[in-house]
């Protein structure tokens, strides 16, 4: 059971004393593990060198006319940080690493194990071999579940070289520090020297004007012809398709399209009004025919009005005659026949006049429909012309873009031609933009790991660890060992203690 109230230094020492065996055991185990790890940890030697980045093609100012004299001067404008970074990128590139592995061979990076002569050495080799087998088994499991990709020996060698290589550049400095950590001293020097040789070859290949002046001169002539041809084709295309007047044409066609669309909307409104008028006339005719001729409203047409007036007079005459004569008399019959004739004539005239009105409206409707069709054709024509203009404008932009690309390529090759000419001057004056400050130097003693420092720090940590374990076990021990513990935790009076006597 824990004792939160026992906080004196004496209690701490008592807890440690009670667990001194555990403390010594943990200390011995920790120190043994520490010594074992440091014993199996191989030493590494450091090979280092320095490069100085000076002049480059982009850092040289030279006159446009190169004088073939021995007094020619090349002036440097300084080294940019991008130049140093670019050289460092070449050093750490996979191409350089693969070239080193290819030139030295895989056996340089994974040499055969030489059997040790001492028992301790044989034990170390066996242990290291076992650890490698375990790591290989773990990798096989990862390969089986597609969690990792298997590497060939060359790829493993390249990966090992890139991890061991360190390339550092300082800000506002033209010096590159290169270092390589390796287990074998001579191998480290051999690898770094080979890497420097391959780097210098790659650097020379990258910055050398291997095409020559003639190549760039031919390319300049070629792109000048292409640019001139593109300019001529663009001018002819604009002239043929009247591209020069495209802004005015586009504005005029847009105005016409808007005007025609407005006329179309007005024509559609007029067509709807005429159709409504025709439908209204037909509806009124149908409605009037259901009424008697006397009940129908007086028509403003003179002829129809006369018929209505005549019909009204006849009906009034008939009513007067019906007072004096019998309904079946000849006078009444004659009046009815005349009334019937007037009605028939009036309806015939009304139908004829209504049809004439409908014909007039139908003629107007046909005219409006014809006008609508013509407007739609004009609109389609203008829209088609606008589409052609838009397509031609797209083609013009494409031709202008091709012309711009040709001009950029021409400027690029002119710049490369100038750079090639400068390179000739640099080669003639034996000026290089990268120089080795000092050859590869390998440390006489291993630089890593610092086993003495590791053992000192590790021993202190092991001691602290063993003390912490013993203190934890003693601090959380619930055993009652003294009379005060019995009285305090059990809350009973202590009467006495029975001591264990040795057996006789």
How would you explain this protein's 3D organization?
The protein is an alpha+beta fold and 504 residues long. The protein folds into 3 domains: 78 residues, no CATH class; 166 residues, no CATH class; 179 residues, Helix Hairpins, CATH 1.10.287. The protein contains 14 helices and 6 strands. The strands form 2 sheets. A 4-stranded antiparallel β-sheet has the order 4-5-1-6. α1 packs across α13, α2 packs antiparallel against α13 and α4 crosses α8. About 7% of the residues have low confidence.
Distance from N terminus to C terminus (CA atoms, Å) equals 36 Å
Mean pLDDT: 77
CATH architecture of the largest domain: Orthogonal Bundle
Structural class: alpha+beta
Count of structural domains: 3
The profile of the biggest β sheet is: 4 strands, antiparallel
Helix content range of the residues, please?
Answer: 55-70%
Low-confidence runs of at least 5 consecutive residues: 56-77, 290-300
Beta strands, count:
6
Helix and strand run? HHEEEHHHHHEEHHHHHEHH
Count of discrete alpha- or pi-helical segments spanning 4 or more residues: 14
Question: Could you tell me the radius of gyration in angstroms?
Answer: 56 Å
**Tell me, what is the CATH class of the largest domain?**
Mainly Alpha
Strand order of the largest sheet: 4-5-1-6
Named CATH topology of the largest domain: Helix Hairpins
β-strand percent reads 5-15%
Shape: elongated
């Amino acid at each position: 059971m824990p004792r939160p109230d026992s906080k004196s230094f004496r209690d701490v020492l008592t807890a440690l004393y009670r667990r001194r065996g555990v403390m010594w055991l943990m200390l011995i185990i920790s120190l043994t593990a520490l010594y074992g790890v440091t014993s199996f940890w191989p030493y590494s030697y450091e090979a280092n060198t320095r490069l100085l980045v000076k002049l480059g093609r982009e850092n040289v100012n030279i006159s446009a006319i190169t004088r073939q004299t021995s007094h020619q001067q090349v002036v440097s404008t300084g080294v940019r940080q991008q130049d140093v970074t670019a050289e460092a990128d070449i050093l750490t590139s996979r191409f350089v690493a693969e070239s080193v592995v290819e030139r030295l061979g895989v056996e340089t990076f994974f040499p055969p194990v030489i059997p040790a002569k001492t028992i301790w050495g044989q034990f170390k080799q066996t242990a290291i071999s076992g650890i490698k087998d375990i790591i290989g088994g773990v990798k096989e499991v990862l390969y089986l579940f597609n969690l990792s990709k298997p590497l060939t020996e060359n790829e493993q060698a390249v990966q090992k070289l890139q991890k061991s290589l360190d390339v550092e550049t300082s800000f506002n400095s033209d010096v590159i520090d290169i270092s390589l950590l390796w287990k074998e001293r001579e191998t480290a020097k051999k690898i770094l020297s080979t890497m420097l040789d391959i780097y210098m070859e790659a650097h020379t290949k990258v910055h050398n004007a291997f095409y020559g002046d003639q190549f760039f001169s031919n390319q300049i002539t070629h792109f000048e012809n292409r640019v001139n041809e593109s300019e001529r084709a663009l001018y002819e295309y604009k002239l043929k398709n009247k591209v020069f007047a495209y802004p005015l044409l586009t504005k005029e066609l847009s105005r016409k399209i808007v005007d025609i669309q407005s006329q179309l909307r007005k024509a559609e409104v007029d067509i709807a009004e005429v159709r409504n008028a025709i439908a209204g006339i037909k509806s009124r005719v149908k409605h009037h025919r259901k009424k008697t001729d006397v009940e129908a409203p007086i028509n403003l047409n003179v002829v129809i009005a006369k018929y209505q007036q005549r019909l009204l007079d006849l009906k009034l005459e008939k009513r007067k005659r019906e007072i004096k004569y019998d309904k079946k008399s000849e006078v009444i019959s004659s009046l009815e026949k005349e009334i019937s004739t007037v009605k028939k004539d009036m309806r015939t005239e009304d139908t004829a006049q209504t049809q004439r009105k409908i014909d007039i409206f139908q003629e107007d409707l046909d005219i409006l429909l014809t006008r609508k069709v013509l407007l739609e054709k004009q609109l389609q024509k203008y829209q088609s012309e606008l589409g052609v203009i838009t397509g031609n404008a797209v083609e013009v932009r494409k031709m202008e873009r091709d012309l711009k690309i040709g001009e950029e390529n021409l400027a690029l090759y002119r710049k490369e031609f100038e750079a090639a000419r400068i390179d000739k001057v640099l080669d003639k004056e034996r000026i290089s933009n990268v120089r080795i400050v000092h050859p590869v130097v390998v440390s006489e003693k291993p630089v890593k790991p610092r086993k003495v420092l590791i053992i000192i720090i590790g021993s202190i940590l092991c001691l602290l660890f063993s003390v912490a374990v013993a203190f934890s076990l003693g601090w959380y021990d619930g055993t009652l060992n003294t009379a005060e513990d019995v009285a305090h935790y059990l809350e009973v009076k202590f009467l006495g203690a029975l001591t264990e006597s040795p057996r006789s």
